[in-house]
Specification:
Length: about 475
């Protein structure tokens, strides 16, 4: 049975780069009918916070991911919070010391730093010099008698470690260049290396899929698997995600946490789809797909070795397609909180004209990548619109005046306006004024909305209604700034 895990440290909000690791673990488990485990690596007590665990679980679920085992769903390998597994790491350390695989190191942080500096200055790698390996019993007794703090270090053999990475092929590390590494800190918390290897062992993890930033940790983990007498899992180190400037994706490239994308009103399936394109593409190279369509074609060894570049425009392009296809009731539900927050619709749900919201969302959904954009897209329907001096000048030309007058005259004869009636109306205005195309639509659009771009004209007319359209044209004739709130 294939078992994979996503093992985030809850020290901040889940960002795109890390969530992408979760996505590919989940996809791999799905592809092989395996088990996806969520394990929380919260041994760094000072930096880990429970709220981040809660939030990341919420974010992963929002994205559409699910796991068979984890802190929130339990499982037969529980507990899944490393902070609840401390006794296990301590027992392992004790056993390693008894077996001569590890030892107590009494070097102080200051002494270590000083030696690192000296090594650096003489051009040597700043590795630990393994000096506490050779302490005599007498020296150890002296340190113990004075209750000197200690870490526990694992003895690294002078050997080459070679392993096959599912993405990167053969990887070689010369361990004679590495010092003995810490497995237990002086505050009695396990190091990342120990906790990962112990838990991957005890949780029967078969494949470790994680970022290539962990590649150089893997030889340490392999040594620990060996010491634990465990057949090591297979490794797949995924390339990392960069911003357009080729630096590691971070906040400065815009929103980077999943919860921010969620707040902006991206559709989760769109974000998930886009994240799957970071470093991978389905065989048919289609860019928009749902997971069920592509899961059978997922082959982790086909993932790119080079960095994935996060492209906000591409995300928006894919999101726009999802937005256009989404169910209008769902979009209206999503839109209402943004419209309420902008003061466009009543904060009282009972008073919302849902049909009006639906027509508004329908009119603008083609121009949006995420729902928060609805505010800027639809303020023309709710807010004071200002026709700029330049636009007033433009609309004052003889041609524009005659178009608007003809348009207004038609509106006077109508009780209501549908897209078909509106199209007919424009046709007859065109006949009368002999102006067609953009020359005809633009003055009407500007007079109705104060803008050169926006939803289809007939949708605008439909949403404003005959009264609304008439009032805006009247106000234009009076050359006033429109107070749309009174419409
Ligand atoms: N807690 C580690 C991280 O967030 C997990 C690394 C691993 O997957 O082994 O990077």
């Amino acid at each position: 049975m294939i078992r994979v895990r996503f093992a985030p440290s809850p020290t901040g909000l889940l960002h795109i780069g890390n969530a992408r690791m979760a996505v590919f673990n989940w996809l791999f488990a799905k592809r092989h009918n395996g088990v996806f485990v969520l394990r929380i690596e919260d041994t760094d007590v000072a930096r880990s916070e429970k709220r981040y665990t809660t939030q990341l679980i919420e974010d992963l679920r929002w994205l559409g991911l699910s796991w068979q085992e984890g802190p929130d769903v339990g499982g037969s390998y529980a507990p899944y919070l490393q902070s609840e597994r401390m006794h296990i790491y301590h027992d392992v350390c004790k056993k390693f010391i008894t077996d001569g695989l590890a030892y107590r190191c009494y070097c102080t942080p200051e002494a270590l730093e000083e030696r690192r500096q000296i090594a650096r200055l003489s051009g040597k790698p700043p590795r630990y010099d393994n000096r506490c390996r050779a302490l005599t019993d007498k020296q150890i007794q002296a340190f113990e008698a004075s209750q000197s703090p200690y870490t526990i270090r694992f003895k690294v053999p002078d050997e080459q470690i070679v392993f096959e990475d599912l993405i990167r092929g053969t990887c070689r590390f010369d361990m004679s260049l590495a010092g003995d590494f810490v497995i237990m800190r002086s505050d009695a918390t396990p190091s990342f290396h120990l906790a990962v290897a112990v838990d991957d062992t005890l949780m029967d993890i078969t494949h470790v899929i994680r970022g290539e930033d962990h590649l150089s940790n893997t030889p340490c983990h392999l040594l620990l698997f060996h010491a634990l007498k465990q057949k090591p899992p297979q490794f797949a180190h995924l390339s990392l995600t960069m911003g357009a400037d080729r630096s590691l994706l971070s906040k400065r490239h815009g929103a980077s946490s999943i919860s921010e994308y969620r707040k902006m009103g991206y559709l989760p399936e769109a974000l998930l789809n886009y994240m799957m394109l970071l470093g991978w593409a389905p065989k048919d190279k289609k860019e928009k797909f749902n997971v069920d369509e592509v899961v059978d074609t997922f082959d982790i060894s086909s993932m790119s070795k080079s960095s994935a570049i996060f492209d906000q425009q591409k995300l928006d392009w894919i999101s726009g397609q999802y937005m256009r296809e989404a169910d209008i009731e769902r979009l209206a539900d999503l839109a209402i909180p943004y419209l309420q927050a902008a003061g466009f619709v009543s904060p009282d749900h009972g008073n919302i004209d849902r049909n009006r919201v639906k027509s508004i969302v329908d009119a603008v959904k083609g121009n949006m990548a995420c729902m928060s954009q609805i505010v800027q897209e639809t303020d023309i329907f709710f807010k004071d619109a200002v026709v700029s001096e330049d636009h007033i000048k433009f609309l004052s030309s003889e041609t524009c005046q005659s178009i608007l007058e003809a348009f207004y005259a038609k509106l006077q004869k109508l009780d209501s306006v549908s897209p078909d009636i509106f199209k007919e109306m424009l046709k007859s205005v065109q006949k009368e004024t002999k102006v067609g195309g953009k020359g005809l639509y633009m003055p009407i659009r500007i007079a109705l909305t104060g803008r050169e771009h926006g939803p289809e004209l007939y949708s605008i007319a439909n949403i404003l209604g005959v009264g609304g359209c008439r009032k805006r044209i009247e106000q234009f004739f009076k050359k006033e700034h429109y107070d749309i709130k009174t419409l």
